[in-house]
Specification:
Blueprint lengths: L2 H31 L1 H20 L1 H8 L2 H17 L1 H26 L12 H14 L7 H7 L2 H10 L6 H14 L6 H9 L4 H10 L2 H8 L1 E2 L20 E6 L5 E11 L6 E7 L5 H4 L3 E3 L20 E3 L23 H6 L7 H12 L4 H8 L6
Antiparallel strand pairs: 1-2, 2-3, 3-4, 5-6
Helix pairs in contact: 2-3, 2-5, 4-5, 6-8, 9-10, 9-11, 9-15, 15-16
Keywords: Membrane, Transmembrane, Transmembrane helix
Length: about 375
Amino acid sequence: MSVKGFIKKVTKTIEGMGALLKIFKEIRAFFQVKLCLISSLFIAIVFAFIAIYYDPVVYAGMFNNILGKVILFSIIGLAFVRDFYYGCIVSLFVAILYFVAGEIIKGKEGFKGGVATGSWSKKTLDDFKTYNAKVHPDTQFNLQILQEQASDEEVEEYVKTGYWPWTDVTKKMYVEQAERLQMIRINPVIQLNEAMQLYNEKAAQQLLSWNTKEGNFIINGGLAAYDPLVNDDSPQDEYQPKNIIKCVQDKNGISKMQKKSFHGYNYFNGYKNTKTEDVLDEDIPKEMPGFEFVKGPCNPCGPLENPPEYNCPFTLNIRGKNKGNYRGGDNNFSGKKISPIWEQLWGLKEPNEEEARQFVEKMYDTSDPKNKGFYYGLATGI
């Protein structure tokens, strides 16, 4: 390269740096002149964040409502009319508010997942968010699971009436179980109405199933058969820790049955010596007294999957000589009788819809004072 060419290249570089410095000076001068406006915008966006955080309806009104969008675009347009740079800053602040505040609201309200992969339409999703932000602001929802449980039509009725649509069969089972399990006597119809405001039918059925001997066994497990060879000849004593068999999830998230055996105590630290091992499906009846498969060996832990798998019916005998092996306590469906909700979920027995319809009809009928105490106010015992 010649000296002349080198000097020319250096001159262009200096000119470029000069242009860059000129740009920086312009930006600095702009911020000095517009400092008051920028400070006002910053304070406004902070207050907007606070308002949106405490009342998500504000966010929905600003960005999901046509009128809100018109107002925002009008503000941005007026800002550009007044000053180009001012309009750019206002647009930047609105963009920050839209994306950042939106993520904060999703995390705060529990609206996570399900937007891209769910089955609801965008309108249904927006209606559900807006409704619950107003009516149930302190309740969190997992939309990914919720969209697997409820249809657009169910959500539409929920938003319209305030109650999830339940069949009479589910209503009957819920009221009967509420009356049977509650420690404090409350009108079960009131409990039913409150539950229908929060839980869709599939979620309600899942809750009903967990409050049975079968559900408690799946969640909490049971006491495995005592084997002195496995327990190092430790005496079977009432105060000795018992071997436990229960459903767990492996590292891949698959639910399966495991057994934890007790092997005495550590002489140095006093901790329990335990051993955990997987249990084959066909060996579960041997390990868990009172447990029997209805249709043959299968994985009873399927209801813990997402979505739940109801394809492994079984019976639990929690009374008689095997009493005490069940860790979840007792209920009215003791012996080998399968709880009604599990008969329905496993497809073993078709529910009596006519009987359920009559039950619900009489339950809400307050015209007959004689029946009011039994059907409408089951908890009163009148």
